[in-house]
Specification:
The protein is of the alpha+beta class. 40% of the residues lie in helices and 27% in strands. The chain contains eleven helices and eight strands. The chain has helices spanning 3-13, 51-68, 95-111, 113-124, 167-184, 215-221, 223-230, 233-244, 264-267, 271-274, 290-297, and strands at 38-46, 74-79, 86-92, 126-142, 154-162, 190-197, 203-210, 245-261. An eight-stranded antiparallel barrel has the order 1-3-2-8-5-7-6-4, surrounded by six helices. The N and C termini lie far apart (70 Å).
């Protein structure tokens, strides 16, 4: 996790009210691996001439965070399509929870200055960065309660920017789309977030967690049956897309577990992926040479 992310997020908090979402407590029924109520998304682009060094720094930072039990988690996504970029997926339950790690990180950097130096190296390789805070929209999602992020290896991300004042039409389109998915019984759930800060408004983000890249084939194969399930709603949905959508973009990201820092509860969902144990290499058995064996068997004087 990068301190710059939280500083940017904290500055944004002073411009908004903290009533957007309710916080998750230990007693909450929501799983640790469920899509969070609040997302801090950090889009980063780095200089290409320090790629291998940056990889080492980010892995070292994640390992240090694991040892120090820092107060927040983050998942690092790396783009497969679109511009080369890193997307940090930082889960929170509320704006209030987002503010809490700031004081703790100040203490961590004060007591572990080596982390500050490591973060400074990563920041020096940055070309650009944008921080976005988004709120989960369950009413626009499809079977989001079945999503287990610990099982995801890839994320397909759809970004939809609307013309001002067209949020209700977008909601109508996605509710119709969700109904069509229900008709065909698709087992590929998705969750929608609405950008609250850091992006032109209104902007929505739909995340489709995937276990394999091959699940994109399922989306392609299901297009015809999906159109049939949409029925008369298809024409209305196309009209909304033409009139309400200002821009759409869809990209695929892979999850990098080495650069991510997640809780023990989250990692328990798939420990082989998130916290793989180092392989133990068996030591080769040293065989004595024939001459050595003969020498051992000779009587000693």
């Amino acid at each position: 996790m990068m301190m710059a992310k939280l500083i940017a997020a904290a500055a944004a908090l002073t411009l908004t009210i903290a009533s957007a979402v309710a916080g998750r407590t230990k007693e909450s029924a929501e799983s640790e691996t469920a899509p969070p109520k609040l997302l801090v998304l950090v889009y980063q682009r780095f200089s290409s001439d320090k790629g291998s060094e940056r990889d080492k720094w980010e892995i070292a930072m994640a390992r240090a965070c694991q040892k120090l039990a820092v107060p927040n988690s983050y998942i690092v996504l790396e783009s497969i399509t679109g511009e080369p970029e890193v997307l940090s997926f930082d889960p929170f339950d509320s704006f209030a929870q987002l503010a809490k790690p700031l004081a703790e990180w100040g203490r961590i950097y004060a007591t572990h200055p080596e982390l500050g130096r490591l973060q400074a190296r990563i920041n020096a390789a940055l070309v650009s960065q944008r921080t976005v805070i988004a709120v989960r929209r369950d009413d626009l999602s499809y079977r989001a309660n079945r999503i287990d992020l610990s099982k995801a290896r890839f994320l397909r991300v759809l970004e939809v920017r609307l013309h001002p004042g067209r949020e209700n039409e977008f909601a109508e389109a996605f509710q119709k789309l969700s109904a069509a998915y229900e008709k065909i019984g698709s087992d590929l759930p998705w969750v929608v977030y609405q950008a609250d800060l850091g992006m032109p408004s209104p902007t929505f983000l739909a995340f489709v967690p995937m276990k394999t890249v091959g699940q994109n084939d399922d989306l392609l194969k299901g297009r015809e049956s999906l159109r049939a399930a949409e029925g008369e709603a298809a024409e209305r949905m196309q009209q909304i897309a033409r009139e309400a959508y200002a821009r759409t973009e869809s990209n695929l990201y892979s999850i990098n577990p080495e650069k991510s820092h997640i809780s023990k509860e989250f990692a328990a969902g798939d420990p082989e992926f998130w916290t793989p144990q180092p392989r133990v290499t068996a030591k080769p058995v040293r065989r004595k040479s024939r001459n050595a064996k003969d020498a051992d068997t000779k009587p000693r004087k």
